[in-house]
Every structure is written in structure tokens, then in C-alpha cells.
What we know:
Elements: H1 3-21, H2 26-39, H3 54-70, H4 75-86, H5 91-108, H6 111-129, H7 134-148, H8 156-165, H9 169-195, H10 203-210, H11 221-244, H12 248-263, H13 267-272, H14 276-294, H15 297-308, H16 313-330, H17 333-348, H18 355-368, H19 377-388, H20 395-420
Helix pairs in contact: 1-2, 1-14, 2-14, 3-8, 3-12, 4-5, 4-6, 5-6, 5-7, 6-7, 6-19, 7-9, 7-19, 8-17, 8-18, 9-20, 11-12, 14-17, 15-17, 16-18, 16-20, 17-18, 18-20
Amino acid sequence: MxxxxxxxxxxxxxxxxxxxxxxxxxxxxxxxxxxxxxxLGIIDSEAVASYIDFNTIGVLIGMMLxxxxxxxxxxxxxLAIYTAKLAKGGTGKILIGFSIITAVxxxxxxxxxxxxxxxxxxxxxxxxxxxxxxxxxxxxxxASNIGGTSTLIGDPPNIMIGSAAGLGFSDFVINLFxxxxxxxxxxxxxxxxxxxxxxxxxxxxxxxxxxxxxxxSITDYPLLYKSLAVIFxxxxxxxxxxxxxxxxxxxxxxxxxxxxxxxxxxxxxxFHSVEWLTIGFFCALFVIVGGLEEVGIISLxxxxxxxxxxxxxxxxxxxxLWLAAIVSSFLDNIPFVATLIPLIxxxxxxxxxxxxxxWAISLGACLGxxxxxxxxxxxxxxxxxxxxxxxxxxxxxxFKYGFPLMLIxxxxxxxxxxxxxx
Length: 422
């Protein structure tokens, strides 16, 4: 390898170590790495923007703006209270109900936004029931990553995969939704069995839940009706965007623009709610991976992987799936997927059918995030919500439940991929 290749690898490793150890903010680490790629001559300064996937960035910004506006209507609080009442205060049913809501919202919004909305509501309900919220929070962590796997917009790796591979919303639903339903069902059944003894509560606490009025959580009915209409239109847009020749980012940004115009909310406040640190992290990361691609590291890895698997499609799917799952359990799945995408594209240029590999990456990276507390952003968000309210979820305690369930989900995914795609 050339000296430029070694420099690019060193930059990438240093950035990755900074992200893992959190010695500095991950966005700052990624920006420093991107600038190093430029100043050390790996990437031409005028070509920096060409490495950034603006479709992924557009989807993220659009959905963040949309959700920040919609939540002001009280819709999400309504869903939480309504589900608790529908379960008649039964703690096991509430755990399953909240987990299903988390999975569904994670599929149509994004999992980080979803847990930011559902977490506080979980604490309110469990406080009324005077019950430990940790089993609920763990279940919602798992459900958020499982649900987010099923659609194009549910998890950042899927947005990145869809943009790079030209896959639409309907492609993800058709190919991943069936196995995700199976995985979610099995996961919730196991969780109910594991936590059933800690969910006992007396009937007086259930009566307190039944006394709640979900309609009182709706604070702005006009905004609610407008939000539901825009969400419906955005979903329709995501389903058909590839057929009408419009990118998914345009759909998301159009939905955000419409709700901001007709929602009559404080636009500056809504824009302040966007996670700009996350957006900056993505932009910088794309540049870093572009540097690796520029010096030939991606092509080298693709050749090595093809040689190691002897070009066997079945072996490739298994290796990619398990590699993505294990790595994503301990590292942020976004930089890993950003590295894998050009790798798979390079393999496709060598005459290999890479369609099954896209689904292997998606299932491995997204579900692998359930393995540990640091495996995905949603995990840390919900854990922090619990900690701030006196209910700490330690790495070891979560690992005891999350890692085995993650392994089960990957085994199911492997069987699914081998049966239908290889």
C-alpha cells in the first residue's frame, strides 16, 4: 500500500477510537478526521462535497423537523396513555403495548426520536403503577432497533444503504418487514417471560391508570389533524418516491416544509430542535470514508473478502450478517456501514449479485445494535432517561438481556436470508 493509504487508515482508526472511548465529542472527532484527510492530501479540498450523501442528510433533517412539529400536538402522549388504558393497567400488556408502539414509530419516524418521545411517557405510567421502569425501558430499546430495521427511514444505516443502492421504501418493507415481525414477536414473548415476576402490581394502581383521560394530552387539535395528514402523505411519498423519480430526501423535506407552513409553530424553535451534531457527524464521516475509497482501501477489502469467501454467495451473506452484527454491538454502526457500502458496491462491479448483501448489512447492523448498551444511539438515549430519573441501567445488566436476544434475532435473520435470498 502507498503512504497515502497508510495515512488514511491511521486517520480512520484514530477517529474510530475517539468515538468508542468518547474522549472527545464524536462529531468533533469526525470533523477533525475529515479535515485531516484534506490537509494531508488524501482528498482534494474542492471534491469534499462530492463524498457527502446529501440524500441521507436530507432525510434526517426532514424527519427531525417533521417530528419536532408533530410532537407539539400531544399525539405521542395520547398514544402512550391510550395504550395503557387499553391494557386495563395490566403491566405485562403495557410492556408489550409500549414496545409495539416503539417499534411502529421507529419504523415510520426514526428510533432516536421515538425513544425520546416514548421514554418520558413510560416513566409517567410506571410511576403511577409504582413499578420499576427498567424492564419497560430495556424492552423499548430492543423494540426501537428491531422496528427501525424494517423501513428505509427507521434507522440511519438503512437510509445510507437505500441511498447508495437505489433501494426505495417499499423495497425495505417487502424484504425486511416479514422477518422483523417474527423477530419482534419472539423477542417480546421472551421479555415477557423474563420480566413477568417483576411486573406484579396491586389493583389500586391499575385503577389510577384507568382514571387517566388520553384526550387531555392533546394540546393542539388543529395541529394534530394537520400532522396526521402530513404524516400520511409523507408515508405515501416514501412508498412511491422511486416510482415517480423523486428522492426520499425530497419527500422528507417537503413534508417538513408543509407542516412548518400550515402548523403555525415557532419555526426558529423547531429548527433548534434538530440534532445538528448528528448531521455534522454524518457529513464528516462520509468524507472520511471517501478518503479510504480514494486511496484504494475499499477495493482492497472487497478483494480480500471475495478471496476469503471464494466468491460463495451463501458464505458471503453469512459473513457480512454476523460481522455487521458483532461489530455493531460494540461500535457505532454508522461508521461501520459507511465503510461497508462502497465495499459492497465494489464487489458488485466484479460481477457478484450483491442484493442479498444489502439485506444482510441492514439486518446485521441494525439488529446488532441491540447487543450492548453502546450498540446504538437509541440505547444510550433511553438509558440516560432512566438514569436521570433514578433508574440506572448498567452495561452489564443490559448485556445480560440484550446480547442473547440479539444473537437470537441474527440466527432468525440468517435462516430467513438463506431460505429466500441465497
